[in-house]
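Reviewer comment 2.1 asked that we show a complete input and output for one of the modelled complexes. We chose the NAP case, as it is the one discussed in the main text.
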Amino acid sequence: MPPTDADEPSSGLPEEPGGLLGRPEDPERRRRLRDERPQLARGRPGDPWDDGVGDLWEHGAGDGGAEETVQRGVLVTGASGGIGEAVARAFAALGDRVAVHYVHDEGRAEEVRASLPGEGHRVVQADLADAEAVRGMVDEAWVFLRGIDVVVNNAGVSPAHRLVAVSYRQWQRAWADTLAVNLVGAANLAFCTARLMIDRKAGGRIVNVSCLGAFRGEPDMPAYSASKAGLNALTQSLAVALAPHGIAVSAVAPGFVASASTSQLLAGPEGDAGPEGEPLRAQSPAGRAARPEEVADAVVYLASAQAEWASGAVLDLNGASYLR
Ligand SMILES: NC(=O)c1ccc[n+]([C@@H]2O[C@H](COP(=O)([O-])OP(=O)(O)OC[C@H]3O[C@@H](n4cnc5c(N)ncnc54)[C@H](OP(=O)(O)O)[C@@H]3O)[C@@H](O)[C@H]2O)c1
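Response of the prediction step:
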């Protein structure tokens, strides 16, 4: 039996007086968030701020049969560009309200928010390597969005640390930084939102953005592939643990995606000859990289009401470039 910590509460958040997730209470901030947030199309069962009608996961957006569209609250990490931006856009196009997360590039995150269709979107900031910052971001998004129905763990880092080229110190730093964001950050975000979802008793969805590298390996950035393999295992563990609460947990594992962060690589010599002598564009027999929108479409499906039975799945999105 694992050791127990006498200070650890046995159930439920908040674990300290104050904010939803145990943040020190700031009544002014809470009031401001409540005033700023838009009206919901319909209420949510168990939502402490709503009168609550209906079951989101029976009648939610994307079920194809509902006359009335229910706006979901969707938190997308790393939505200031690339795949995350496409994911934010795809949910907003369905009428959902999106919390656009960033860490450094506030200007870009603000641009994304302002360009999203619909209303009720918000920019939120947190370094995912900082557990308290994650808690604060979830608290803010939960209040502003009137609950979070979908979390997309998309943000990720991939510093290069080729074993034969870096010092032992650089090697350790790369492992610590990568795991802190890609794996522990995602786990902390899942913890904070899932505990609130469980208390609300209205189910939810968590979709993790993994990578083909989890299966194939990444010789230049082994910590990255290990973090994504860990993310896949986290996905499966949480899928089992959260199923009784109506929370489905799944992942997508894209191959090479053409986005702002990879455009230089694609345009450069590695676009034609990758690190292992393999042309990046030709990794797929289709002869191209994925579009961010193709990943976003899959995330939207996995977050839908119909995808409850896909819980635990890690969906390959690599254009047949790697078959397992
Ligand atoms: N692109 C690909 O080919 C590819 C393939 C397979 C899987 N993936 C995965 O897909 C996801 C998105 O990839 P992308 O290429 O679209 O990403 P990207 O354009 O490089 O964007 C990365 C995002 O992560 C955020 N971020 C970076 N460090 C962070 C930290 N410490 N805390 C919180 N957020 C942080 C960035 O915020 P700021 O902009 O504010 O810095 C940015 O929004 C990643 O998980 C990646 O591993 C990508």
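Confidence is low (pLDDT under 50) at residues 1-14, 40-55, 58-68. We note this here for comparison with the apo prediction described in Section 3.2.
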